[in-house]
Write a structure and sequence with these properties.
single chain; disordered C terminus; 259 residues; 3 helices; globular; mainly beta
């Protein structure tokens, strides 16, 4: 696992820096459009973070990221394959763990204060497609969890047991980009809030996204068949895999309607 970690982030370099204090924002971080950076001069695509939301229930931490630009699973070997680190400070203590990766490139990225105890290594999806590794601050592999990519999003769920049996309250940051270079990072530190699991299969959108996977979502999926859309759960275009996944999740979303 340490070799995989090194292969994933040595591309971008590693450094130890001392952080200064910043105040966390609750639940969701919203990032400015058009602030992606050509850090290494590798050129486009410059993946541009839109939002990152982190919520939790009694057993699981849920992460959802959206982008202003198209993204795809890095295992597909497309230019917009998204990698990076989503970092968690489980004890909210800047003096434990390690500084966030983005501090290595500050400027242009914001210099943030948090002590990273665990992180999601997005590069590891190239090793086992559809899954990413949860790694601790020493570089040790803790768990491997599924990850879902949409046309301009990604989402995953991390068992709290894999974060040291944490209570779900974590500070979070993220540095994202492509295989050649990091291109964007969070502008501030966020703090998770209680919430319900995401339910991407309730994909019809609008007012009818009511927390239930049903006939309206089924018809929406059929209308989007062969192209991108809200019912494209894996980022590969709406097709048979999405159809089977929707049917497998038919009925009420986990823990009730989405908020």
């Amino acid at each position: 696992m340490k070799k995989l970690l090194a292969a994933g982030i040595v591309r971008w370099g590693i450094a130890v820096v001392v952080s200064t204090f910043s105040v966390p924002a609750l639940g969701q971080l919203v990032d400015a459009k058009g602030d992606a950076e050509d850090v290494f001069g590798a050129g486009p695509p410059l993946l541009d973070i839109d939002t990152i939301s982190v919520t939790f229930n009694e057993s699981t931490l849920f992460v959802e990221m959206t982008f202003h630009t198209p993204v795809s699973a890095p295992s597909r070997a497309m230019p917009d394959g998204v990698i990076g680190l989503i970092e968690f400070d489980v004890d909210q203590d800047v003096l434990t763990g390690v500084p966030p990766l983005q501090n290595l490139w500050s400027p242009p990225f914001a210099f943030l204060a948090t002590g990273v105890d665990y992180f999601v290594d997005g590069w590891t999806e190239t090793v086992h497609p559809g899954f990413v590794d949860i790694v601790d601050a020493t570089g040790g592999g803790i768990d491997t969890v599924p990850i879902r990519y949409g046309p301009m999003s990604l989402s995953l769920a991390v068992p709290l047991l894999s974060l040291g049996a944490d209570d779900g309250v974590v500070n979070f940051t993220a540095t994202m980009g492509t295989i050649p270079q990091p291109t964007d990072a969070t502008d501030e530190v966020g703090t998770s809030v209680p919430g319900v699991p995401p339910c991407p299969w309730d994909c019809d959108g609008g007012e009818s996204a009511d927390g239930t996977v049903g006939i309206v979502d089924f018809l929406t999926l059929l209308a989007q068949w062969g192209g991108p859309g809200s019912c494209d759960f894996d980022g590969g275009g709406v097709g048979i895999d999405d159809f089977q996944e929707l049917l497998a999740n038919w009925g009420p979303c986990p823990a009730g309607p989405m908020r």
